[in-house]
Amino acid sequence: MPVLLLIDLQVGMTWPRKRNNPQAEACIARLLAAWRRAGQAVVHVRHLSRTPGSPFWPGQPGAEFQPALAPLASEHVVDKNVPDAFTHTGLERWLHARGHRELVIAGVSTNHSVEATARSAGNLGFRTHVVGDACFTFDLTDLRGLRHPAEEVHQMSLANLHGEYASVIDTAAAERLTG
């Protein structure tokens, strides 16, 4: 059975910025409820910054999980300091020790932590699914100074992943994976 891997669903990610996909949290809540009903493994990934003053510095309000999507005591939590949830976290070892070979990834931001984690998961041999409608990102300025809307950034990131590192699916398809 696939593990639901929820990335960076922290309070600081809800603070006002231009983003896409306002229904992402509702989709994530549906996935979380489906995994819990099915008794399947859920892993919550939390970004803890190494930069003093960051909203994601340990103990800051921005670093806390969003209350509606917070882990239960029985659910595994992985703390990371870089975008990739596999780098220096023990996540790969935790998954292998429990025989997990398939991941369903949702969270924020699509072009940073979601994409970095999905790339590593695919490279490490996990069967990986990214739930496109359960992810979101923010507007981004490129190196030429051109501003790209969040939806464009989101779609390009999903296109980078699909077929190479992961399959991009929607919430309904992900829910069917629970059995």
From TrEMBL:
One of its GO terms (molecular function) is hydrolase activity. Its EC number is 3.-.-.-. This is Cysteine hydrolase family protein. It holds the Pfam family Isochorismatase. InterPro entries: Isochorismatase-like_dom, Isochorismatase-like_hydrls, Isochorismatase-like_sf. Residues 3-172 form the Isochorismatase-like domain. It is an enzyme of class 3 (hydrolase). Keywords: Hydrolase.
